[in-house]
Amino acid sequence: MAQxxxxxxxxxxxxxxIDGEKMDILVRDGKIVDKLDGKRKRVIDxxxxxxxxxxxxxxSHIAGPKVNSGRILRPEDHFRDVEVKTAxxxxxVGRSIPSTFTTGYRYARMGYTTVMDPAMPxxxxxxxxxxxxxxxxxxxxxxxxxxxxWYVLEALRRGSVEECAAYVAWTMKATRGYVxxxxxxxxxxxxGFGRNVRNIDDPVPNFEITPREIVQGLCRVNQLLHxxxxxxxxxxxxGKPGNYATTLETMKCVENMANxxxxxxxxxxxxxxxxxxxxxxTFESGAEEIAKxxxxxxxxxxxxxxxxxxxxxxxxxxxPFQYILYQLSGNKWVNSDVEAETSTGIVPFTYxxxxxxxxxxxxIGLELALLIKDPWKIYLTTDHPNAGPFIYYPRIMSWLMSxxxxxxxxxxxxxxxxxxSLLPTLDREYTFYELAIATRAGQAKALGLKQxxxxxxGADADITIYSIDPASVDPSKKYRLIRRAxxxxxxxxxxxxxxxxxxxxxxxxxGKTFWVDVETSASxxxxxPRLKKEFEDxxxxxxxxxxxxxxxxxxxxxxxxxxxx
Amino acid sequence: xxxxxxxxxxxxxxxEADCVTPDAFAGKTADEIGAMKVWEGNRQRNLxxxxxxxxxxxxxxxxxxxxxxxxxxxxxRIGVGMSAGEIxxxxxxxxxxxxxxxxxxxxxAGNADSWTGSMMRGGVxxxxxxxxxxxxxxxxxxxxxMRGGVxxxxxxxGNELGCFMRKGLIKVGGSAGQFVGMHxxxxxxxxxxxxxxxxxxxxxxxxxxVCGTVPSVLPTFTIDSVxxxxxxxxxxxxxxxxxxxxxxxxxxxxxxxxxxxxxxxLKFYEAYL
Lengths: 565, 273
Known about the structure:
Chain A is α/β, with parallel strands linked by helices. In chain A, 33% of the residues lie in helices and 22% in strands.
């Protein structure tokens, strides 16, 4: 029995309302316990250090065919950032699209232990899981893209929510997926025919259904199936000036479906969906409007999608948006259509401080995080690698925690953007408690991962210890110390095992892959013959080959839910 | 003060020696330099396991002058990112010589391999023999090629000379391979001999001068005029030259000068003048 005692750390565990209390954390067999038996235990002295639950990332493109195409597309991204193999780790390359092993190691070094890959074309599930199997240490899951699936669209057009629910339940099992993901609902399907949708009431060509109906339909399906997370939405018109109105419409369209205080929609990388103005010249921030809405409604959660000024690779399932980005940047690009399901696009991109638009985007992300009052509603992400590689998280944490750090960067950015930005008027600085919500507790809660994001009894012993003393360090002034401490965790503990010590990997373990096993009524699963017909008509693969068997996952962790239907 | 490096044995596998630069050697004794790490294949070694190191280094990079005596054609990345000082390679040099160099001087008495001076920003590289492919080019996938400095090749150069070049000067005494100045944005390339096909493909700016034979000019270049001479770096090169402008597929404004005398098969272009 492996036992571990973490002594005297300042513990931040927002889900259990522990705010910097000095206490001990006890671990036995990979779980948090209230007492240890016997004398055999390892002791970590965490005095003068911060103890938090392992980090959780709700949205980070770390695996799948799109990520892999990005790797192939960008040799110049890798060659300056090479990781040499050690006795414990494998070699790899890094920067904006790190190789799988490097992804796992780097997340663990920052103290993250659970990372969600947010865009898996169902057809490519096998590839995605193979990459996730090779991503060590971290626990992970993948979100199948369902907002543009022909079967979903047709079922919703027929008004048959239950049939759609049956298909979604089947897909979760067949692709070992975790969340219903919608990307530019309807727009990707239109893109297959060279078109797009303009707003949430613009009918999808060939399907006579609007994005509004898709969002509402899948939101209802999500509720019927009792999924652990809400629907995860990348809005229509993403990355276009004036799109904040579409974002508000999308949030509003499921407003009356809310059930109590429980969120029903997650609007992801909100920064890209909070643009105001008519074109790039009159471009400005719509963060205030979005924040106002989110502050007064409890059915929405969001994540930042914070810009970092660096060279990165944008990759989304939003093919039409990526095509626009190619036209704007003139860079090399990849665009493709995934049979009857979705599309994809990749464009390398450099965010520049000197650019008015990029600097405004940087400002929007932080404005959202600071204007949305409740930290349980907005989480820290960069939509890795779209707005910046995840290795820059410590820098974003310092911007959230220190007004001085924000102002220092603002002095060096585009003057017009600086004058228009709301940031100079915002005094708010995140506390360590709020940071713990934005980087782990809030994300775990939103994802419905009951074992993650907290240090209460019975939780998974995913613990991070950062070498920074909250009693003596003022994060507002010493933001450089924050960056250093959060970049390399003093200890990262995964399932009770020490995997990182002083920023070095000391042990590589296999993380779990979560997927949702929905139990539905037997009659609901009578869609199978129709599905088989669908595969014969529309797909290049057989029904039987499409399904990813459970043994294909290195460590399978099904999350069982019982559906209403 | 000169530092001399002599290989202790003939290298069978590639050696990654990116520490062999005046910047890394400055202010160090021969022993300290000998303790620096290099990779020989998949094994990490001390520099003095591979080289005899004699002489003295300088206090600052600009005071460092080193000589590499012996065959180092398996030794990669000599002079990477150097900002000042001098490196003289007495025989052949390996891949990536003077990559991302910012200043100083590298002289190779023998041949240099591919990627010589790629992504270079300043300084001078002189190769007495031939050079391989991608001289002064960008790294694979990148659009940032040579951005300053001078590369002089006395012999022949390989393919994709000055690919994605943005600034600076490349002179080739002999002939060059295919795709001279591909994707070039600015800067100057002079080839004293001939070159193989597709010179200036997708170039959007800059100047390419070919004094010898070219098999043909890409159809996406239009003839502009015939010039009696071309000025390169203050020196005049006597012509006459056909001046082509392109590459039209990229809406480019690059200038491709091709000598008239050895290229009689291009005479038909004169009808369009």
